[in-house]
Design a protein that fits this description.
Layout (H helix, E strand, L loop, with lengths): L6 H32 L1 H93 L38
Length: 170
């Protein structure tokens, strides 16, 4: 038994398939177009859909423009803050350098004050010895307070220090 299909039947089957596919395609493509032409509700829906699409596109465009503007504003703000930050860092550096200079100067002055106090004490002791030996000279040697033993009692009168805002540069 032979299962060979004659060539003319294959050709007919192929032709039928092509015709059916063409008919199916034309039916689906033309149906919405013909129904929108004949049905005013369908045309109204298409018009609303088109308007909504246009409105959505415009809204998206505005949203992108707003986002771009916000990004530019943030970049500008960031660069301004970076400049301000570097200015503050420079001012802090200068103030630290001035503080170190002042502290060094204070240390030198404290050492000098201690040295002078020791020298004055030794001179006062010498005067007291001379007076005790009966040299005939009346010596009035004031007692010098040791600022390290009683730092809250200064031997000098307290003079208020007045400063203006021009003295401090930040």
């Amino acid at each position: 038994m032979s299962y060979a299909i004659p060539m003319h039947r294959i050709h007919i089957l192929h032709s039928f398939s092509v015709v059916f596919l063409y008919w199916f395609y034309m039916a689906t493509v033309q149906k919405p177009a013909s129904s929108s032409d004949s049905d005013p509700r369908s045309a109204n829906i298409d018009d609303k859909k088109r308007k909504r699409m246009m409105s959505n596109r415009e809204s998206a465009r505005r949203s992108r423009a707003k986002k771009q503007k916000r990004l530019e504003d943030l970049v500008n703000e960031m660069s301004a803050l970076q400049r301000e930050n570097s200015q503050f860092a420079e001012k802090i550096k200068l103030a630290t350098e001035r503080f170190i200079e002042m502290e060094s100067s204070n240390n030198v002055l404290r050492a000098r004050e201690t040295e002078l106090t020791d020298r004055l004490n030794s001179l006062n002791m010498l005067l007291l010895r001379l007076e005790g030996e009966g040299s005939g000279y009346a010596v009035d040697a004031p007692e010098i307070a040791d600022p390290l033993m009683q730092p809250w009692q200064t031997p000098f009168p307290i003079i208020p220090i007045m400063a203006s805002s021009d003295a401090i540069d930040f």
